[in-house]
Amino acid sequence: MRVKNKSLTREIILDIPSEFKHIYLLDLVVSYVSKEMGFNEETKEQVNLAVIEAGTNAIKHGNKNDPSKNVHFRFDISDDKLTIFVKDHGCGFDPSSIEDPLSPENFMKPCGRGIFLMKALMDEVDFIESDDCGTEVKMVKYKVSIDKK
Amino acid sequence: MKIDIENKDNGVILHPEGKIIGDGVTKFRDEIESQINSGVKWIILNLAEVPLMDSSALGAIIMAYLKLKERNGKIAILYAQKNVIDVLNITKLNSLFEIYDDIQKALKSVQTVGSLSDNQ
Fold this sequence. Notes:
The complex is a heterodimer of chains A (about 150) and B (about 120).
Chain A: E1 2-5, E2 10-17, H1 23-37, H2 41-62, E3 70-77, E4 81-87, H3 114-121, E5 124-129, E6 135-142
Antiparallel strand pairs in A: 1-2, 2-3, 3-4, 4-6, 5-6
Helix pairs in contact in A: 1-2, 2-3
Chain B: E1 2-8, E2 11-17, H1 23-37, E3 42-46, H2 55-70, E4 74-78, H3 82-90, E5 98-100, H4 103-118
Parallel strand pairs in B: 2-3, 3-4, 4-5
Antiparallel strand pairs in B: 1-2
Helix pairs in contact in B: 1-2
């Protein structure tokens, strides 16, 4: 884990191999970041779960559980918001292809709720097309949560 | 993450402890499948010591729900913490699973199903 100090933003970087056992390390780092942000307990757990979902997707769907490929996390801590970037080395995906897990045809499926939860728990979630291969997810949590449309 | 197992007539109470995330989900899913394969008719998940579970863990509970339903069995959730309840509410799975904060009520519900299927 690396910590950089920019002018008004502190940056924490974490790289983990694509193995599910490292999700517990990720959970510890996110807890530390949330503490630095001064989030309340409810918000801490929301951020933890959203990042865990993003990390799990990156390991499973992006890097196909290949431990030689890392998942890259960057946490930008500023006074008013936490911005999180999660990047894998997969083949990318089309966010519009994600199905609604609340629809009757999907409700009983055991998978497909990760991105739905990320969007529900964070204030902003965007998928960024990268020049090289892979998917990058950007998530934002404001210190005072905004009302989502 | 560890799971204590409390065997009962026709069923089992599972007591996982710790966050069910990462490779903890594999352990959780394997234990549930093992119990179902051993022939139990009902499972109660005591989530009192589970501060957080991810969507893959929810998927493991859905699988258990479907498999037990096939044999007229049942799964119930007991003592879920607020964070877990919030996730169940967001995903609307609170409308699918029976959720209790009283073990006697949970036992009454699942054991009734177990004894009904015994008589079929």
